[in-house]
Amino acid sequence: MIGGLFVYNHKGEVLISRVYRDDIGRNAVDAFRVNVIHARQQVRSPVNMIARTSFFHVKRSNIWLCAVSKKNLNAALVFQFLYKMLEVMGSYFGKINEENIKNNFVLIYELLDELLDYGYPQNTDTGVLKTFITQQGVKSQTKEETTKITNQVTGQIAWRREGIKYRRNELFLDVVESVNLLMSPQGQVLSAHVSGRVLMKSYLSGMPECKFGINDKVIVESRRAADSSSAAGATKSGHIAIDDCQFHQCVKLSKFDTEHAISFIPPDGEFELMRYRNTKDISLPFRVIPLVREIGRTKMEVKVVVKSNFKPSLLAQKVEVRIPTPLNTSGVQVICMKGKARYKASDNAIVWKIKRMGGMKEWQLSAEIDLLNATDKAKKWTRPPISMNFEVPFAASGFKVRYLKVFESKLNYSDHDVIKWVRYIGKSGLYETRC
Amino acid sequence: VKDSMRGLAVFISDIRNCKSKEAEEKRINKELANIRSKFKGDKALDGYQKKKYVCKLLFIFLLGNDIDFGHMEAVNLLNSNKYTEKQIGYLFISVLISENNELMRLVQQNLKNDLASRNPVHVNLALECIANIGSKEMAEMFAPEIPKLLVMGDAGDTVKQSAALCLLKLFRTAPEMVPLGDWTSRVIHLLNDQHMGVVTAAVSLIEALVKRNPDDFKGCVSLSISRLARIVTSSYTDLQDYTYYFVPAPWLSVKLLRLLQNYPPPEDTTVRNRLAECLETILNKAVEPPKSKKVQHSNAKNAVLFEAISLIIHMDSDPSLLVRACSQLGQFLSNRETNLRYLALESMCLLATSEFSHDAVKRHQETVVTALKSERDVSVRQRAVDLLYAMCDRSNAEEIVGEMLTYLETADYSIRGELVLKIAILAEKYASDYTWYVDTILNLIRLAGDFVSEEVWYRVIQIVINREDVQAYAAKTVFEALEAPACHENMVKVGGYILGEFGNLIAGDARSSPSTQFQLLHGKFHLCSPPTRALLLSAYIKLVNLFPEIREDIIAVLESDANLRNSNVEIQQRASEYLSLARNSTQDVLATVLEEMPPFPERESSILAQLRKKKPAVEDAIRVRGEKQQQRPASGAADGAAASAAPIAATPASGGGGGVKLQGDIAGAESNTDSDLLGLDFGGSAPAAAAGGGGAGGGSVDLLSSILDVGVSSSSSSSAAPSAASGASAQRKTVVVGAGASGSIVGEENWHKFVCKNSGVLYENDILQVGVKCDYQQSSGRIVVYYGNKTPAPLAQFASVINLPDSSLTNQLGIQVKPVGDRVGASEQVNEVITVDCMAEFFACPLLNIRFVYSGVAQSITLKLPLTINKFMQSSEMDSATFFQHWKQLSQPEQECQKIFQAKFPMDAETTKTKILGFGFSLLSNIDSNPANFVGAGIVQTKSGNIGSLFRLEPNQQAQMYRLTVHSIKPGVSKRLCELLETQI
What residue spans carry the Low complexity bias annotation (chain B) (predicted)? Predict the structure, then answer.
């Protein structure tokens, strides 16, 4: 029961204000601005109670998105909704910033009407929304079309309309993983986890039923147990242990629970099929070996070695190493053989960029940092960790798509006729090494 | 121009243009890196560059970022001869360098150089910097120098001005550092300076100095009056720069007027007339048509006017001026400006306290009342209430209280509580007809029951009980009030009490027959909180006495499980006790036990104290007036609120014999009432004692009786004591070793009483009562010292220190003190717990030094702590054989001590016995051949061992003499015991 929804810019000016319930007045808009956006001390809590009214906010770049309620409602639901809404808006007009919101405010109000009804979240599926909220001019819909929309939205399979036809049946699977790491200076892994998403883009005719197979330990083993007779030879340990996963609403969870099979009728177009997390047996694509030496009070030497740790045939891209410098740095000399390194004063860091880096390589950077004598000696440099960004063409968790089968009984195309593309992308999340 | 610092301007505009905080942070980081590389660079920076970068750093700092470099560069700037560079350097230093930075030495050196400089601009900069830093260290270093600049003949005006302000700042941070010398007399003459800026600065300084020692600066009165006269009479064109929107030198005028408020009206008539003229001129100017419509003009004019009025009020000597001020304020009451109305009401409050203008203020009553009703601003309404309260006297009390009551219905919640108190006080103070008083208070409870504090209804009951003429009326009114379908719990309390006491007075009326009364009360019973229910139960048992015919009904109520088995112990106990009383007693017993409450002693209303707690300043002013008034007219209403100054008066216990217990219990029901009305909060031990059924007879438990009443309340009060003391955990040094006791020791005679007993009043004067209660067990003891403030004002900076006069005591006694808070509120009592361990035998007596500030005067009292060696003695029993065996063993000369002395008290065998037992010895019979002789034994228990002692006391009735012989293991102990016992018998 969200009472109202407000969007502010960074100055606290209201860009969008939509009130769903009578118990929220105009003054709630000001209350949030005064108490949170303009608060004397930065407000870090995402939920704030002001005058018996709860304010839930998320901040995206410079935009504040705030849901208000007088009721005691499920905060997780509100945040899930807010993030979903950001996603929906993003898919409509790209980056969420003040200018885009101002340019699309009519659209946003239209969306808000659809997303929430009397404060209750409704359909938040981008694909469905896009069928009836378009950015084109208003086109009067015929009666059949409106009934079709109604049927679809209220029907059992709300995410896919009937009668879709493609000349080429095609589907794309992207496995996108972000690798998070915290490593001690000695190379000991302090914490590491991978959060991955399976994104699917489907251009399939009719109402196809898809079956998706991955190398998850549980699924593989249950399959093996089912046909134990034939499993004699297959003892390959190519499966991974997924800690937890969640699926798009189109996946039949009952089937997943009983048969460990991922079976679904996909929405048309792009969607996120599943999301998972993995903490075991992660193959870290890079290792950073730092060496920091403080020479006296006015000089410091930094040596950083980056080792790529994957098949030589693969190529990492957009590799960037960020080496923080002390706050009293007065000058930096950097030497590196590969890539480009520069001292970025505005970030207080040396940024080392490498466009491409093959597997099993080892590159090195060394820098001399001049320091200014600080008057206040009490403050010691805390040595923040060296962070790293990259993109590699494999899944660090070892996640593999085993199969994706498409069955469409009514139309005459079979699994073999569908063109399938699978791609793995490993990205860096928070990839840090202490120095 | 090179001086414009383009880089800085660009940087600032860059920052301003940043879209987000992150962008701003990046820009700042970049700039900081740039400055660092510049400061580090090999190339020496010139002054301009240094200035520019220091400026940037300053700007970054002001944006909220930390700056930890550049201080050295800023200090370097001080060496420059260019004004702008020096200025920026000083600015950076006064903003950024902390007091204990090591660069401070360098800075101070620079400051010294600049102060000695011949260039006045440099001197000025240095002075400003000193004032801006304004640390203690600065004061120490420069305070002696600056007065020289101030009175130096050839110093420029600006230097003098800055020097005065700088000195003021240093004086405020460290008054003790500023030396008072011959310059002080010369400072006064700055008031005559040509330059108005110097005068303004000097007045500020003089006012601060005057506050410390007014006598040294008496000369400034006439000087400032003449200065004021010159300003007031000048036209606005005369003062040029110092005229502000056509008002000549408003700030200076205000300061001069404020300075004059530190002194009584001048005695010299010419001076006084001159001042009166000035004030008159100011008042005249107020009525002139404004010279400008700008708000600044009227603000400045009114500022001077209000300060003049407060001076008039302060002097309180010229009736015509007071009346004129009052009429001027009256005009402001209907002004459009809310601020003016507020200020007018505030000043009028003070005017109302002056005898000359009181009547003039009263003329505006109607305006104030309308302000109360129509004013939109709550703070102004609050002031209006204050004013009404202040202007109230016998003639208009009824009207004002009526208005306040009507206002109460609509009043803001924030001021209701105070309003209720004020109405209650006024109604009581000026009640000529007590039926009116009862009506008013009942109305008050009806309208704002939630805001009526306990004190208010206690007070009604007191008054009703003490005045027979209103009792019947009160019973009737209360009865009618209770008939309303919904009434406040406080009303039920009053109703229960009054009907219980005086229900018989209205029983004759068929409409309020006994059973109706009971039904009415009982109808509210279930809606009330437990304390009220308990009170109602007491009322019921009283009704049993008044109306035997409804006895059965009441027994039924008492018998019901809801009461007899109530989870609340208080209710349960009352129900069961009253039940058996109602069932078993004859009418005679009932009549004795449930007799009407005796009249309360007259005392100051505690409501007044409560109000004073809320608003000390105003109330005190009004109270002073109230006292003045009471001295003048010998009004018959001496029973008014503020009549008795001494609030502590013990009420004699009423009832007797078997009736005591219940009487005490009924009193106990109201014992909260009583202890609160006394204004002495006895930490909850009083109700506990009464409820414990021990039979504490006092209807009102006061400080004295509860301390003396050890036998009854020792358990409860001693358990209350540590909990109260444990609140104070501040670690202060409370035990001091030193030979010299500061101040003479008082209360010596009281001390002697404590040798044989453990509780009582150790010391008492007009301000403070010190009570002591001790417990000893073996070698350790606990002394609880009760400090009771007998005055209606708090004692500030309260501290007590245990002083050990003999340094050897430190090894003999282990003393630990749980200190009290540093404040004893008006009529409050605090206690201090001292735990003592006896390590070894001791002979000296620890001293207790109490210091506090009462009404601005520091007081110090030194008392002997009643801690003697016999306190640690335990009596021991033995047969004659053992006794004589010990006696012989301990008969070496140093172990024996014998004294022959005159009896100090009548030689009564029984009292002597109790004294000896109280002293700690046992009394052994059948040992001495002469039965008149006393023989006994005791063991002094210390941590380092036990000391057995024996004594023999031979009285000689004819000569009125005693012979006392004490034998003890340790030589000194027998002597000391002998001395101590000697004083007692």
Answer: 633-643
